[in-house]
Amino acid sequence: MIVEGELSNCRPSSTGHLYFTLKDAEASISGVMFRNRLGSLSFEPKDGMLLRVKGSLSVYAQRGTYSIVAEEMELAGEGEILAMLEERKRRLASEGLFDEARKKPIPRFPKIIGVVSSPTGAAVRDIVNILSRRSGGMRVIILPAPVQGSEAADIIASRIEQANFWKLADVLIVGRGGGSLEDLLPFSEEAVVRAIAASKIPVISAVGHEIDWALSDFAADLRAPTPSAAAELVSDDREKTAEKVKTLSDILISSIENKLMNIRLSLKPFSPEDLEYRFRSMLQPALVRFDDAKEALLLNLQYKIDELKRRLDLAYMCLDASSPQKILERGYSVVSLLDSKGNKGKIVRQSSDVKNGDRLLIRPLNGLIHAEVKES
């Protein structure tokens, strides 16, 4: 059998069993859930919860009363809500609204924080207290919106759009404190999810407690487990950050000073005169090698020049000795035949080259001699 009603008189026993009463406006029935079945529950039963209990009917004969022995227990209506949320989640995810690639980074030191939530709720008070304590001087703009009820989703979406239109903040916190699954439904409405996904301002979703969730968590750029945690995420403690920067600065300065001290200690043994001496002692061998190389180069060049002069003189002497002018100066003459017209012919090199009556032209060192062969 299945019974639905409001839980009351919920009292765990010392043996680990849970005794309770289910009631509605017209009737009530006692019930018990034994310890071995309590471990299967995904929630902690509390008075006032609307539950659907599945079990068997039991009769207490001595009193003549009926009770239900519970085998399963779930929040009334939760199954249908979860199924609806899963279907909506799949549909919106298929549109890419939950893609990691489109998520924007949260600024580390934002100047203005926008909070979309109930202005009278505990969540807003917690956020303001944490921000004022951790980041003094940071501006907080409250964008009031109901956080449950049928009109809440449209107003929440409208506040997100207004913050973007007027560029009211560097980052938005959208959320509320804890509540039942039904209480958190506005943050899973399609209008809110789409407004968060379309926001140019980075959005942190902070809905309920750590175990709670809403579809806004998937569309937001960052999910915070609670509104207080969201405030801590956007308010990196500036004093601690400044201290960390100063510590790193001191470490850097100390490191530089140590290096400079080591350099000074390394240079301390060296005076300007000593440095000059050391420099010259390093430079002198190089200068000597340079001078030696220069002298060797000049000697080799001089040797090559002298050698070329000797070869040139020898060639000149050979050429001069072979000069016809020099031969004529030694008493020799050049004898040539003359033709019938008196033109110079071939050179006479032997007596057989002429015959009687030939006319000859003899050229000694100076002048010309004309002769005629009388006998050959």
Tell me the layout of helices and strands.
Blueprint: E1 2-12, E2 18-23, E3 28-33, H1 35-38, E4 50-60, E5 65-75, H2 78-94, E6 112-117, H3 122-134, E7 139-144, H4 152-165, E8 171-176, H5 190-198, E9 203-207, H6 215-219, E10 222-223, H7 227-234, H8 238-267, H9 272-321, H10 324-329, E11 334-338, E12 344-347, E13 359-363, E14 369-372
Parallel strand pairs: 3-5, 6-7, 6-8, 8-9, 9-10
Antiparallel strand pairs: 1-2, 1-4, 2-3, 4-5, 11-12, 11-13, 13-14
Helix pairs in contact: 3-7, 4-5
What does it look like?
There is one protein chain. The protein has 376 residues and is of the alpha/beta class. 41% of the residues lie in helices and 23% in strands. The protein is built from 10 helices and 14 strands. Helix 3 (122-134) packs parallel to helix 7 (227-234) and helix 4 packs parallel to helix 5. The model has no long low-confidence stretch (mean pLDDT 88).
Order of helices and strands: EEEHEEHEHEHEHEHEHHHHEEEE
Assembly type of the chains comes to single chain
Q: What percentage of amino acids are in beta strands? A: 15-25%
N- to C-terminal separation?
Answer: 169 Å
Per DSSP E runs of 2 or more residues, the count of β-strands stands at: 14
Would you tell me the structural class of the helices and strands?
A: alpha/beta
CATH top-level class of the domain at 103-236: Alpha Beta
Number of helices: 10
- Radius of gyration, CA atoms, in whole angstroms: 59 Å
- Looking at CATH, the homologous superfamily of the domain at 103-236 is Response regulator
Main beta sheet, described?
Answer: 5 strands, mixed, barrel
Large-scale geometry: rod-shaped
Average pLDDT works out at 88
By CATH, the topology of the domain at 103-236 is Rossmann fold
| Low-confidence parts | none
Q: Any guess at the CATH architecture of the domain at 103-236?
A: 3-Layer(aba) Sandwich
Strand numbers in spatial order across the main sheet? 1-2-3-5-4
Range of helix content: 40-55%
